[in-house]
Amino acid sequence: MAQMYFYYSAMNAGKSTTLLQSSFNYQERGMNPAIFTAAIDDRYGVGKVSSRIGLHAEAHLFNKETNVFDAIKELHEAEKLHCVLIDECQFLTKEQVYQLTEVVDKLNIPALCYGLRTDFLGELFEGSKYLLSWADKLVELKTICHCGRKANMVIRTDEHGVAIADGDQVAIGGNELYVSVCRRHYKEALGK
Amino acid sequence: MAQMYFYYSAMNAGKSTTLLQSSFNYQERGMNPAIFTAAIDDRYGVGKVSSRIGLHAEAHLFNKETNVFDAIKELHEAEKLHCVLIDECQFLTKEQVYQLTEVVDKLNIPALCYGLRTDFLGELFEGSKYLLSWADKLVELKTICHCGRKANMVIRTDEHGVAIADGDQVAIGGNELYVSVCRRHYKEALGK
Amino acid sequence: MAQMYFYYSAMNAGKSTTLLQSSFNYQERGMNPAIFTAAIDDRYGVGKVSSRIGLHAEAHLFNKETNVFDAIKELHEAEKLHCVLIDECQFLTKEQVYQLTEVVDKLNIPALCYGLRTDFLGELFEGSKYLLSWADKLVELKTICHCGRKANMVIRTDEHGVAIADGDQVAIGGNELYVSVCRRHYKEALGK
Amino acid sequence: MAQMYFYYSAMNAGKSTTLLQSSFNYQERGMNPAIFTAAIDDRYGVGKVSSRIGLHAEAHLFNKETNVFDAIKELHEAEKLHCVLIDECQFLTKEQVYQLTEVVDKLNIPALCYGLRTDFLGELFEGSKYLLSWADKLVELKTICHCGRKANMVIRTDEHGVAIADGDQVAIGGNELYVSVCRRHYKEALGK
Question: How many domains are there within chain A?
Fold first, then answer.
C-alpha cells in the first residue's frame, strides 16, 4: 500500500538533497521516480531541483492551476512511475494536496513531499497545513539554530539582518533573506 | 531543555491512557505532573481525564478564556511542576498554544499534549493547527481502521451509522458518534 | 503488508499498558488480537499481562521451547487473528524472533513486540538483539530518570538501593529491584 | 544536553549524503563539525567520506585501536567542536561506542553515527549492536527493495548475482557485491 510522506523542516536543512538522494535510490534500482517543484521557485533556474550542497536534477513544474493528479497520471501511463517526489511542497494548494492523496490511494504511487512547515510569521503554508492534516507519515528533517539547538522556525531578515514581522508570506530567497532558528531565538528576534 | 510534544491520532487510539501512563511514570518517581483537560469534554464528568480502558485521574480544566501560562505558573509556584499533560488539546486556542510554548521556553517545564489531528471534515482543529506548527516533537499514536490499515481520519455518523458531511466542528461523543478510519475509507464513506 | 514493531524502553515505562491499549483498540473494532507473555514473568500470576497502572488481560505463555509460529498459526486457523502482541519480548530466543518474522511475512499478521532494550549490565537481551536487527519499526516508549531526563538504561539495586554490577541477566522484580535511569546516572551509579 | 544518534539503514540508502548534508548545515552556520570514517573503507580513497551521488569531504580515520574519545577531545581542545559525525559506524568496537557516549555525556558534544544495521547473514555488526543498545535516538534512513517495499536487509552476491550464505562479515564493496532487499526477498534469496 503506497503512503504519503511529509518531510518538513525549517530552511536550509537539506530537504532538496534528501529528495535527490531518494530519487537516486529509486533510479539505482532501475525504477522510475518523477520529481516536481514549484514554478514559483526560480532561484536555481526553472524546472530544476537544486541543493545548496551542489546536487541538481530536472523537475516538472507545478503552479497554482496545475492538476497534479492528471499530470502524474499522464506520466504514469507513458511510463510506470514508482514514486513521485515533490519539492517546495508548502506551495501546493489544498486541492493539490488532495489530488496527491488520490495519486497515493487510487494509483498506488508513493508520494514523498519535502517542504517548510511555517512561514516567517509562524503560520502554516497552505500546502503544509493539508500535508500535516492528511499525510500518512510526518518526518522532521533537522537543522540547527546558531545556539546549537534544533531550528524549527524561520526568520525573515532585512538587508541589515534585522528580523521582519510583516510582509507577504512568499519572497523566494536563500540565506540572505531567511534564517532558521529555534523557537526561543525566534521569539527573541521578533521581540516576543 | 524542556520540549513540547504533540501526541496526535484519530479517535479511540488510547490518547488518554497514554497521558495517564505518563503521569503515573512521573508520580512513581516522586515527581509532580499537572493534568489539564478541556472543560467542553464532560463525557466522563467535569475535571476528569478518563480512558475507555478504565483509567482516570483528576484534571484542571481549561476553556477558551483560560490563560494556561498563568494557571500553570501558579501551580508551579505552589509546588514545583515536572511536567504538564494536556488532554483534548485540539480544543486549545492559538493563543493558548502560544502560552504553552512559553511554559516550555520560559518556565522550562515539558508540555505533553494529546489530541485529535483533524475533524470529521478533514480540517485541523485550531489547537492541532498550532501544535503541528510549533511543537518540538510530533508523535502519532496509532489506531486501526475496520480494514486493518492505520486509521488517521474521523467520520461523524448519524444514528444509522451513515457518515455526515456537515455540521459544527464539535459535538462531543464516544463511539456512537465518531468512527476512526483510514484515508481511503474516509473518502469512500463521504462519497469522494 | 503486515509489519513487525519493536516497542522498546527501560523499565516502568508503561509497555504493558500500551500493549493492553492496542489490544483494546483491535477488540473495539470487532477484531481478534492474541496476547503472549513470557512464562518466566510470574510477577502478577501466570498467563496474564498486567500493568502497574491497574490493567490486565489473559495471555498465552511462551518459554524457551515454544514454537511461536506454530502456536500462532494454530490460533489463526481456529479463528482469524488480526494481530499478535508479545509482552516481555526480550525473553524471546533468536529462533523465536525469526519465527515471528515468518508470522508477519508468511501469515501476513502484524506483530507488536514490547520489551526491554538492555539489561542491568547494558547488554542486549537475546530477544531485543534480534528484534533490533530484523523488526520493521523500532519505537521507543519513553520514561524518565530521577533527574528528569529520558531514562534509557536500567540499574539493578540490592536491598539498600545500591547498584549491583554482576549477577544473572534475569531476576524478575518490580520497582524494588530495578530503577530506570539516564545514561549519565547509569554510569554514575556503576562508578564508571 | 548533547545526544547520540544512530542513523541506520541497509546499503545504498544515502547515509554518507545525509552525513555530508548535516556537516554542511553546521558549517553554514559558522560551526565546526568533525567527520570520522573507518580506515577499513578505502573504496573512495583513504581519509574521505564520499557518497555515490557525487559529494565528498575530508575525514579523520579510525581503526580498531583508535581511542575516539582522546582523538575527539584533542580536536575539541584545538578548536571547539559543535558535533562529531561518524560514517561506517558499524565498524566501531564496543569500547569505541562507549567512548562516544563519553564524548556526548562528558564533553557535551552531539554524536551523529551513520551505518549499517545487519550484515549479509542478518547479524548485527559490533558497532551497530552497541549503538542500538546505548544511543539516545535510533533513526532509520530508508531505501527500497527491487519489489518497491522498504529494504532493511543486505545480501552479498557472487559475480553471478547469486546470494552467498557464508564468508567473512566484512568484504568492502559497492553495488556489485551487496544488494539491499526487504526481509521477504532476503529470505527468498537465501532459500529460507
Answer: 1
In the three-class reduction of DSSP (H, G, I as helix; E, B as strand; rest coil), residue B163 is classed as strand
- Per the structure, the complete domain to which residue D96 belongs is given by 4-142
B185 touches chain A (CB under 8 A): no
The answer to whether C65 contacts chain B (CB < 8 Å) is no
Q: Quick check: is D171 in a domain?
A: no
**Pick from C12, C24, C148: CB nearest B28:** C12
Q: Can you give the pTM of this predicted structure?
A: 0.94
Task: Identify the residue among B4, B5, B105 best suited for mutation to test binding to A, counting A beta carbons within 10 A and taking the highest.
Answer: B105
Complete DSSP assignment for chain D? ---EEEEEESSSS-HHHHHHHHHHHHHHTT--EEEEEETT--TT-TTEEE-TTS-EEE-EEE-TT--HHHHHHHHHHHS--SEEEESSGGG--HHHHHHHHHHHHHH---EEEEEESB-TTSPBPHHHHHHHHH-SEEEEPP-B-TTSSBP-EEEEB-TTS-B---S-S-----TTTEEEE-HHHHHHHTT-
Per residue in A115-171, pLDDT (tens digit) is 999 999 999 999 999 999 999 999 999 999 999 999 999 999 988 888 888 877 776
Q: What is the ipTM of this complex?
A: 0.94
Domain assignment present for residue A158? The answer is no
A24/D52 CB distance under 8 A: yes
C108 in a structural domain: yes
Based on the number of CB atoms within 10 Å of its own CB, is B142 exposed (0-12), middle (13-18) or buried (19 or more)?
middle
- In a domain, residue C166? The reply is no
Q: Is B32 on the interface with C (CB under 8 A)?
A: no
Determine which of B107, B153, B183 to mutate to test the interface with A (most A C-beta atoms within 10 Å). B183
CB–CB of B144 and C55 under 8 A? no
CATH number at residue C102: 3.40.50.300
CA nearest to D192, candidates C94, C101, C69, C5: C101
